[in-house]
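[Q] Does anyone have a clean structure-token version of this?
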Amino acid sequence: MNYLEKILACLPERTKRAIASFLLRVPENKITEVRLRANAPCSVTYDGKNVYLFGGDQVTIAEEELRGTVARLCEESLHTYGESMKNGYIMLNDGMRIGVCGRAVCEGGKILGLRDVTSLSIRIPHIFKGVSDDVMPLICGGERIESALFYSPPGVGKTTVIRDVAMRLGGGAKKFRVCVVDTRSEIYIKGFFSNSLCDFLDGYPKGTGIEIATRTFSPQVVICDEIGDASEAQAILSAQNSGVPLIATAHGADISSLMLRPNIKILHDAGVFRYYIGMKRESGSEKYIFTVTDTKRRLE
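[A] Here you go.
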């Protein structure tokens, strides 16, 4: 069963019929998300657009139906995901990630749990091989791996690209020891890394994961997604001092907005990244367009 089939099988019957009729008419690889909202329109993100009319009508799902959908997606084991739900997501074993909105139960400024789920954002992972082809000669043109920070607004596909980079480095003709800090279990997909020298620190906070990877795994490169906070910056600086290159991602529309983030600026001033690689994708195209800033060339 593929991801879309699993999602449809968990939906209430009337919602499943409406969305399935649309999904059958469009290329599956351009569908990135199914979003469900209690007592509000459901939507599908297709080719970067929000589709919320199915057969000319909006489709809504009741609160009770939404709760049942969550339970079925989690195979009736919601308690297993209680800790991650507090952080706004559920990561299923098959690599599918579900963003969760609802009413938080708080005490002393800390979230103790989540009740009354009101929205689900079901992200559909896609395995696209070769999407990093245009930048791999920069990252690894020989024996040396260069550090790089990929940036773009949310939803462009940064995780897809660094997944491909990790696979190419760990599973290519010359295999490198790659340590992936996969905080939200988004990079690893079962079967994709079976022929690689990639080690995964799954669920670790990024700062802690980077520190452990550098100290205990002797990696030739560390890869992680969505960096930016202070603890991560300090761990990255420590890794930099040990000579381990980092390939990471961050949210940013351009270099200027990226540098407005204090912790990214700290890393930039320390010379952590050789390349800053902006990403975009034209509507209707699966090809990524990269804008590369080489800090070494600029300094020269």
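[Q] Thanks! Anything notable?
[A] The mean pLDDT is 88.
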